[in-house]
Amino acid sequence: MSTFMATPATIQRRWYVIDAADQVVGRLAVQIANILRGKHRPEYTPHLDTGDFVIVVNVDKIRFTGKKLDTKTYHFYSRYPGGLKTYHAKDWMKTHPDRLLIEAVKRMVPRNRLGRSQMTKLKVYSGPNHEHQAQKPIEFKLGQ
Questions:
Q1: How far apart, in whole angstroms, are the C-alpha atoms of residue 95 and residue 139?
Q2: Which residue in 1, 19, 34, 58 is a FRET match for 128, CA 20 to 30 A apart?
Q3: How far apart are CA 36 and CA 92, in angstroms?
Q4: CATH number of 15-69+96-139
Q5: For residue 144, pLDDT beyond 60
Q6: What pTM was computed for the model?
Q7: Where does the pLDDT of residue 143 fall: very low under 50, low under 70, confident under 90, or very high at 90 and above?
Q8: 3-state secondary structure (DSSP) of residue 91
Q9: What Rg do the C-alpha atoms of the chain give, in angstroms?
Q10: In the chain, which ranges are E strands?
Q11: Half-sphere exposure of 62 toward its Cβ, with a 13 Å CA cutoff?
């Protein structure tokens, strides 16, 4: 008996649609990160990108638990002196709600070339419409 290792030629990629309306950001991000990495599949291989594409709609209706919407901050450094940028979750929720979910998922995938290639398969939209009808996406029920 030998261990099965997936190869790029054997991977069959699927497209999933997830409705983010009234979902908690962190719990939704865990589900999305697992799909992007391929951990929901029996042929998961840690060193390969075995994941599927994920389309997330209605991101403007996601929610935080507790007081996180008021207290959570995101920090970025521009690599210039005095270049520390700080953003609050409440401000991003008004202007760019998609960035909240992208940042949460980005922090749950590996921080290397593999993680960056997995993040390219995430498509996030604020409204209920998306432009990937030709791929015939399957609706993903959360909690699977």
A1: 27
A2: 34
A3: 24
A4: 3.90.1180.10
A5: no
A6: 0.93
A7: low
A8: helix
A9: 17
A10: 15-19, 53-57, 73-77, 84-88, 122-124, 138-139
A11: 34
